[in-house]
Batch of 2 targets.
Target 1
Amino acid sequence: MTFKHLKLLLMLILGLTLPCISTHAMEPKLATALTGEYNNFLPTGKITRFAGETLYYDISFLWFENAASAKVSFYEEHGKYFSVLEASTKGFVGFFTAYRKHYYKTEFEVIDKGRRLRPKTFLRQVTSASNTETTRHKFDYSHRLHTWKKYANEEKVDRGQDAIPTESAFHDILTSFYNIRNSVYEKMVKGKKFIIKTIPEKGHGEIFVHILSEHDQEKFRLEEERKKGDEMLLNIIVPKEIFKTETGELMVWSSKHYVPIETTVKDYILLGDLHARFTHREAH
């Protein structure tokens, strides 16, 4: 087998579509996990307080540790608010996946007296070598209409639209991420369950969130030999197409300050479970 053929084979085996929002990790028997706690934490309040924050994560899968990195940031510029999630492979894995990059950006409206976000636009862009796939979403609340266009490099290849339900909105992963952290959908207490309406993907348009009870969480903690702390364990089911997984299931350990510190994306196609681990937080 030539080097060229070997590279193509490895690209087939290792090629991945990194998850968004949600990239945060679960690895058993880790020595010193970061707490995900910070000064001036509030469980709810003005959601624009997240402006200037960036959370960083390392991603591992199969036998490759720290094979990719991700960061999610909240920005304010000239009175407008938006969030960006960036993820990319690196090192050996990066070489054999053409340094695949994912870029997501949501422009927000701040509503509900400053407490809640809803998306104005949502951009998803995946780049591998010289190829870029882009999907652009727009949300028109006056006409209750969601429109989207898909591009291969600069060529438009598909488009569509959906009616936005009355008194509701389609919350993408970045909108959902910050709304959850501001207790918008439910109070963040153990045992709670709630549903988030998201952008429809092949007939699936809901995110199911279950914050496990203390009893159920304890079973997972013991299995993973985790040190007992003030964490919460969330079981999240998203449309399978978002992360290209078999089940759409995520298990997320969150700090008591609502920062995801360890996450497993279950049954990623070809790769099994993906693990993302919080490394640090910056605030400006």
Target 2
Amino acid sequence: MADQVIERAKAKQVSGLRGLAPFLRPYRLLIVAAGLALILTSSVSLILPIAVRRVVDNFTAEEAGLLDKYFGAAMAIALLLAVGTGIRYYFVTRLGERVVADIRRALFDRVIGMSPAYFDNIMTGEVLSRITTDTTLILSVIGSSVSVALRNILTTVGGLVLIALTSAKLTGLVLLVVPAVVVPIVVLGRRLRVLGRE
């Protein structure tokens, strides 16, 4: 029982994802395309508030023509963000599906090659779980979690840079507040994880 807990803890480590490298290598171009789409959408999502600010700041009757231009630019940026997000989702989902299909094929070939003694020692349900459930978890990591995490990191870093350019004092306040919010979440999250295992 203790060995199983240790194995599960090891499996939850990020370094365990290195085993996916051979399955990701054939899709390098797809990874690059998804990365470029990710950078584009993160950049555009940071530009959109600037365009909206220009619309609000220049909301005067005397500059109605300029207001129309800013509003048009904001709409164009929003459209670009929607298209970029769609492209990113397509590439990331395609990558996840292809990688998982390759993993399932390799896993199935491996299981078929096992000796009959292997199937005497292991339950059929566990084998099926490996082929279906475990690979579905990998799909959720590749097709969603990694993409969302990278987008959030890029948006956070870009947002901090924009705040720093706008107001150094505001940046200082944000940097003071963020640890006060994040640290309790991390501490409580770890505590809940320990309680969940017990």
